[in-house]
């Protein structure tokens, strides 16, 4: 048992380390080669990479619009309804974030505005290496649609000779995706950043993905003109805080729900109750045997510490130090301690708030910073699809007053022409 109070600071830090990342310089070199190949060979490079990495022999890169339009017919009513409920809740939550122009008169006659402009062309990556993720289409596409983006490019890999998942098509239809590319990994990130014959160049690239995708996003943000990215959203993580009253069956289910994402996922349990930790471990073993992705979850569990703390206050400190992508709080006083947490991507409060709710349908976003980036990056939100700019309008008398600040400052900086642009006007207006 890892007893937090018995560990040195260095041991505590090591216990909370994320799974070892690949050698970053080797990864960078590999991804750079993929980017350069796409810059040189465009669509052909994407088709080649589809074959090489996803065993996808298809010559078709772009999904025809009629396939998107006809997708509802391919889905059960139950799945269609599920997608629509999620779409509506995500829309409701993010619609409330729609920005409005702010107009402030900073002093009489000096009017300053903060305006918002939707980013015109956005690229959305939806991971598909081991599972198709229609929910990730909704989590990004709904926001792109709400923002009013004119071009919404969606890219996702398709494995082997499989057809593209109809739930992805339907989610894309609801979100008004304008180009859907069947290709994944670093190649398609480069295609969206630089453009190819079939893939429109975008202004900003969004979305989670594996290490190739994440590295490619970082590289194209430096190399492609006018291209920004959202955040580093890598392997899924969850930290669960559970007290003696928590239900170990729920806790185990929540930990497994993220462990099944990938071998490099990390799930952390922090509790003040040794019995709860032991019962959760037994429950994990029992539930694991029923999972189709048991082998993946088992590997992820090897990266995953279970920690005994002396109090829930200490558990809060552990969480704040770790900075989890997802935090689940299953303590008797959960609602009362929400304010004590920081460095969290998305928080799930109380025994009946599983992370799966936020992953799919409650309305909050599941594209979240991982690897401790929750210290500085935010959960994906509508503002990520906008840029701001300012507008100012100054009256004659407003300028006369503001001159009391502009002229001495321009003089202090030795910038005469700046001062002249004001004083010439004041002389002209005889002020
Ligand atoms: N943080 C979040 O918000 C969030 C949300 C959903 C998923 N995720 C994470 O996203 C990740 C998805 O990863 P994934 O692999 O399933 O799908 P993915 O779509 O990110 O990656 C698949 C692509 O990787 C490329 N690739 C595979 N092997 C390669 C190789 N040897 N060399 C070069 N390129 C190669 C291929 O192009 C392939 O199409 C998981 O780690 C999951 O936990 C995170
Ligand atoms: N938990 C993932 C983000 O870390 C998102 C997801 C998609 N589908 C299910 N879960
Ligand atoms: Zn998930």
UniProtKB/TrEMBL annotation:
Coiled coil: none
CDD domains xrefs: Histidinol_dh
Binding residues for Zn(2+): 258, 261, 359, 418
NAD listed as a keyword: yes
Binding-site list for substrate: 236, 258, 261, 326, 359, 413, 418
Pathway in which this enzyme or protein is active: Amino-acid biosynthesis; L-histidine biosynthesis; L-histidine from 5-phospho-alpha-D-ribose 1-diphosphate: step 9/9
NCBIfam families in the record: hisD
Protein name: Histidinol dehydrogenase
Provenance organism: Pseudoalteromonas spongiae
Gene (UniProt): hisD
């Amino acid at each position: 048992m890892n007893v937090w109070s018995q560990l040195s600071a260095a041991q505590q830090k090591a216990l909370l380390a994320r799974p070892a990342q690949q050698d970053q310089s080797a990864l960078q070199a590999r991804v750079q080669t993929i980017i350069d190949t796409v810059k040189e060979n465009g669509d052909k490079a994407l088709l080649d990479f589809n074959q090489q990495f996803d065993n996808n022999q298809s010559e078709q890169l772009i999904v025809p619009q009629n396939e998107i339009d006809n997708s509802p017919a391919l889905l059960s009513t139950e799945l269609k309804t599920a997608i629509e409920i999620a779409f509506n809740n995500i829309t409701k939550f993010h619609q409330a974030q729609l920005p409005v122009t702010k107009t402030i008169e900073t002093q009489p006659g000096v009017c300053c505005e903060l305006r918002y402009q939707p980013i015109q062309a956005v690229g959305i990556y939806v991971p598909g290496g081991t599972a198709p993720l229609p929910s990730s289409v909704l989590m990004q596409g709904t926001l792109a649609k709400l923002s009013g983006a004119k071009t919404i490019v969606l890219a996702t890999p398709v494995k082997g000779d499989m057809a593209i998942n109809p739930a992805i098509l339907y989610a894309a239809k609801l979100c008004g995706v304008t180009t859907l590319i069947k290709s994944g990994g670093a190649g398609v990130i480069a295609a969206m950043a630089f453009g190819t014959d079939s893939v429109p160049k975008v202004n900003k690239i969004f979305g989670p993905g594996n290490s190739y995708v994440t590295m490619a996003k970082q590289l194209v943000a430096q190399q492609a003109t006018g291209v920004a990215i959202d955040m580093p959203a890598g392997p899924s993580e969850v930290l669960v805080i559970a007290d003696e009253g928590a239900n170990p069956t729920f806790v185990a289910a929540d930990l497994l729900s993220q462990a099944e994402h990938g071998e490099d996922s990390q799930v952390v349990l922090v509790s003040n109750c040794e019995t709860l930790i032991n019962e959760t471990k037994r429950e994990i073993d029992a539930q694991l045997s029923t999972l189709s992705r048991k082998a993946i979850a088992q590997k992820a569990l090897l990266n995953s510490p279970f920690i005994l703390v002396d109090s829930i206050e200490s558990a809060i400190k552990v969480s704040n130090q770790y900075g989890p992508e997802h935090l689940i709080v299953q303590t008797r006083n959960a609602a009362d301690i929400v304010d004590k947490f920081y460095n969290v991507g998305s928080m799930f409060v109380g025994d009946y708030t599983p992370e799966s709710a936020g992953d799919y349908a409650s309305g909050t976003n599941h594209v979240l910073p991982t690897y401790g980036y929750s210290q500085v990056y935010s959960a994906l939100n509508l503002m990520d699809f906008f840029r701001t700019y300012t507008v100012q309008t100054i009256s004659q008398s407003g300028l006369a007053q503001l001159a009391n600040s502009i002229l001495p400052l321009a003089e202090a900086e030795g910038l005469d022409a700046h001062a002249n642009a004001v004083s010439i006007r004041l002389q002209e207006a005889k002020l």
